[in-house]
Amino acid sequence: MLTEIMDREFVYSGHVGCPGCGATIAMRFVLKALGEKTIMVLPACCWSVITGPYPLSALKIPVIHAAFETGGATASGVRAALDMMGDTETTVLTWAGDGGTFDIGFQALSGAVERNENFLYVCYDNEAYMNTGIQRSSSTPYGAWTTTTTGQDWKRLRKKNIVEVLVAHRIPYVATASIAFPDDLLRKTQKARETKGSKFIHIYASCPTGWRIPSEMSVKIARMAVQTNIFPLYEVEDGRKYTINYKPKEYLVREYFKLQGRFKHLTDQDLDQIQQMVNEDWELLLHKAGDRS
């Protein structure tokens, strides 16, 4: 079954994604898992450009380009239209970046999931507004350089925990995933497809351009984010049942940070402070999952 899924392809060659683009890797895996009976709502983001200019498209499924702030609202309308037609098989997928999820699109997302609209919302998270010039978002991590947090003004606020925000809406399914763990990503996407109601998947999608890393390091960096506990892999069902999907090797966070140009200004003291933050977040997650190991 896995071989059959991996053999099918819903992204054409010739798209305009940057070399090593984590968002493009994420798209390929998610569409492999969802299959051809999918309609995508695409708010303004990197993928609005990657897919190509109208009337061309790099995707083999129907796509609705929506305004930056309307991912949740547009998906709600598409789902209602399909239901009126008696189509219960087609998956409605909103595909948005962190800017269109954490910030500009949050009001529509929150309203849709509060109503428990039957669609899947995927946020591919590259931790800044990459399409418009690497500006800081509320997904940008503590310590990061962006074009709006430059020099000594690097971001000194922690990243918004969007997963816990969605969990607080008590929707049926929320999960994290990474481009470096494809089996886990495929399984979670298929599980979301089979779950009725609102589903949210937060995918770690590295950005070589914005993170100042070589393109060939994209997957390695994504793997290290999980192995250092910076980006744990877990899922939450019905707002209360936590399951940790991967127990990492718990490398020191400095091994992750030292490979990225966006963090080159950080001192050893800064990295020690970040390590403490990561440790605290991991312990809290273990507690929520009832894991005493």
Q: What layout of secondary structure does this protein have?
A:
Blueprint: H1 2-7, H2 22-34, E1 38-43, H3 46-50, E2 63-66, H4 71-84, E3 91-97, H5 99-103, H6 106-114, E4 120-125, H7 162-167, E5 173-178, H8 182-194, E6 199-204, H9 208-211, H10 218-227, E7 234-237, E8 241-244, H11 253-257, H12 268-288
Parallel strand pairs: 1-2, 1-3, 3-4, 4-6, 5-6
Antiparallel strand pairs: 5-7, 7-8
Helix pairs in contact: 2-8, 4-6
Short recap of the structure:
The protein is of the alpha/beta class. The chain is 38% helix and 15% strand.
List keywords for this structure.
293 residues, alpha/beta, Rossmann fold, 8-stranded mixed β-sheet, 12 helices, 8 strands
Distance between the termini: 33 Å
Strand content is 5-15%
Q: What is the general shape?
A: globular
Query: Structural class of the helix and strand makeup?
Result: alpha/beta
Tell me the quaternary state: single chain
CATH homology group: Thiamin diphosphate (ThDP)-binding fold, Pyr/PP domains
| N-to-C SSE string, H for helix and E for strand | HHEHEHEHHEHEHEHHEEHH
Q: Write the CATH architecture name.
A: 3-Layer(aba) Sandwich
The helical percent reads 25-40%
CATH fold description: Rossmann fold
Structurally, the number of domains stands at 1
What's the total number of strands? 8
Q: Helical stretch count?
A: 12
Describe this structure in words.
Strands 2-1-3-4-6-5-7-8 form an eight-stranded mixed beta sheet, with helices on both faces. About 40% of the residues lie in helices and about 15% in strands. The protein starts with a helix and ends in a 5-residue tail after the last helix. By secondary structure, it is an alpha/beta fold. It has one domain: Rossmann fold, CATH 3.40.50. It has helices at about 1-5, 20-35, 45-50, 70-85, 100-105, 105-115, 160-165, 180-195, 210, 220-225, 255, 270-290, and strands at about 40-45, 65, 90-95, 120-125, 175-180, 200-205, 235, 240-245. The protein has twelve helices and eight strands. The mean pLDDT is about 95.
